[in-house]
Amino acid sequence: MEAYALNNLGAIYDSLEDTEQALSHYTEALRLRRKLVDRKGAAVTLSNLAVLYFRTGEVDRGVGLMRESIVLFERVGDRKSVAQAQSAIERFTAKP
Predict the structure, then answer these.
(1) Residue-wise pLDDT tens digits, 27-47
(2) Rg of the chain over all Cα atoms, to the nearest angstrom
(3) How many other CB atoms are found less than 10 A from the CB of residue 86?
(4) DSSP of the chain, one letter per residue?
(5) Range(s) of the domain holding residue 39
(6) What whole-number distance in Å separates Cα of residue 22 and Cα of residue 50?
(7) CATH of the domain at 36
(8) Of 85, 59, 69, 86, the residue nearest 33 (C-alpha)
(9) CB-hemisphere CA count at 13 Å for 49?
(10) Is the pTM of this model over 0.90?
(11) Chain mean position to CA 54
(12) CA separation for the pair 11, 21 (Å, rounded)
Protein backbone atom coordinates (compact mmCIF):
# COMPACT_ATOMS: atom_id res chain seq x y z
CA MET A 1 0.00 0.00 0.00
CA GLU A 2 2.87 2.37 0.80
CA ALA A 3 4.45 1.77 -2.61
CA TYR A 4 1.13 2.53 -4.29
CA ALA A 5 0.84 5.79 -2.36
CA LEU A 6 4.43 6.76 -3.16
CA ASN A 7 3.86 6.10 -6.85
CA ASN A 8 0.73 8.27 -6.77
CA LEU A 9 2.61 11.04 -4.96
CA GLY A 10 5.25 10.81 -7.67
CA ALA A 11 2.55 11.27 -10.29
CA ILE A 12 1.15 14.30 -8.45
CA TYR A 13 4.56 15.94 -8.21
CA ASP A 14 5.19 15.06 -11.85
CA SER A 15 1.95 16.79 -12.86
CA LEU A 16 3.07 19.85 -10.86
CA GLU A 17 6.38 19.71 -12.77
CA ASP A 18 8.33 19.16 -9.55
CA THR A 19 10.76 16.72 -11.15
CA GLU A 20 12.95 16.32 -8.08
CA GLN A 21 10.07 15.31 -5.79
CA ALA A 22 8.50 13.11 -8.48
CA LEU A 23 11.80 11.30 -9.00
CA SER A 24 12.25 10.83 -5.27
CA HIS A 25 8.79 9.32 -4.79
CA TYR A 26 8.94 7.13 -7.88
CA THR A 27 12.37 5.84 -6.86
CA GLU A 28 11.20 4.93 -3.37
CA ALA A 29 8.04 3.29 -4.76
CA LEU A 30 10.17 1.23 -7.15
CA ARG A 31 12.50 0.15 -4.34
CA LEU A 32 9.56 -1.06 -2.26
CA ARG A 33 7.84 -2.78 -5.18
CA ARG A 34 11.01 -4.66 -6.05
CA LYS A 35 11.46 -5.66 -2.41
CA LEU A 36 7.88 -7.00 -2.38
CA VAL A 37 8.40 -8.71 -5.77
CA ASP A 38 5.45 -6.72 -7.13
CA ARG A 39 6.27 -7.07 -10.82
CA LYS A 40 3.16 -5.31 -12.12
CA GLY A 41 3.61 -2.41 -9.69
CA ALA A 42 7.31 -2.15 -10.51
CA ALA A 43 6.48 -2.08 -14.21
CA VAL A 44 4.01 0.77 -13.68
CA THR A 45 6.52 2.77 -11.68
CA LEU A 46 9.27 2.13 -14.24
CA SER A 47 6.93 3.35 -16.95
CA ASN A 48 6.16 6.51 -14.96
CA LEU A 49 9.88 7.12 -14.43
CA ALA A 50 10.52 6.60 -18.13
CA VAL A 51 7.95 9.22 -19.12
CA LEU A 52 9.45 11.65 -16.61
CA TYR A 53 12.87 11.16 -18.19
CA PHE A 54 11.44 11.47 -21.70
CA ARG A 55 9.91 14.82 -20.81
CA THR A 56 13.11 16.11 -19.21
CA GLY A 57 15.10 15.27 -22.35
CA GLU A 58 16.86 12.16 -21.01
CA VAL A 59 15.46 10.03 -23.80
CA ASP A 60 18.02 7.22 -23.63
CA ARG A 61 17.43 6.77 -19.92
CA GLY A 62 13.67 6.82 -20.52
CA VAL A 63 13.95 4.17 -23.24
CA GLY A 64 15.97 1.90 -20.94
CA LEU A 65 13.41 2.17 -18.15
CA MET A 66 10.50 1.68 -20.52
CA ARG A 67 12.13 -1.45 -21.95
CA GLU A 68 12.60 -2.74 -18.41
CA SER A 69 8.89 -2.11 -17.77
CA ILE A 70 7.99 -4.03 -20.94
CA VAL A 71 9.87 -7.10 -19.70
CA LEU A 72 7.92 -7.02 -16.44
CA PHE A 73 4.58 -6.38 -18.16
CA GLU A 74 5.29 -9.39 -20.39
CA ARG A 75 6.09 -11.55 -17.33
CA VAL A 76 2.73 -10.75 -15.76
CA GLY A 77 0.85 -11.18 -19.04
CA ASP A 78 -0.28 -7.56 -19.38
CA ARG A 79 -0.33 -7.26 -23.16
CA LYS A 80 -2.17 -3.94 -23.16
CA SER A 81 0.53 -2.29 -21.03
CA VAL A 82 3.25 -3.83 -23.24
CA ALA A 83 1.64 -2.20 -26.27
CA GLN A 84 1.27 1.14 -24.46
CA ALA A 85 4.92 1.09 -23.36
CA GLN A 86 6.11 0.24 -26.87
CA SER A 87 3.97 3.07 -28.23
CA ALA A 88 5.49 5.49 -25.71
CA ILE A 89 8.99 4.58 -26.87
CA GLU A 90 7.99 5.20 -30.46
CA ARG A 91 6.29 8.49 -29.61
CA PHE A 92 9.20 9.88 -27.61
CA THR A 93 11.93 8.70 -29.97
CA ALA A 94 10.25 9.64 -33.26
CA LYS A 95 12.26 12.03 -35.38
CA PRO A 96 10.34 15.11 -36.57
Answers:
(1) 999 999 999 999 999 999 999
(2) 13
(3) 14
(4) -HHHHHHHHHHHHHHTT-HHHHHHHHHHHHHHHHHTT-HHHHHHHHHHHHHHHHHTT-HHHHHHHHHHHHHHHHHTT-HHHHHHHHHHHHHHH---
(5) 2-93
(6) 12
(7) 1.25.40.10
(8) 69
(9) 26
(10) yes
(11) 11
(12) 10
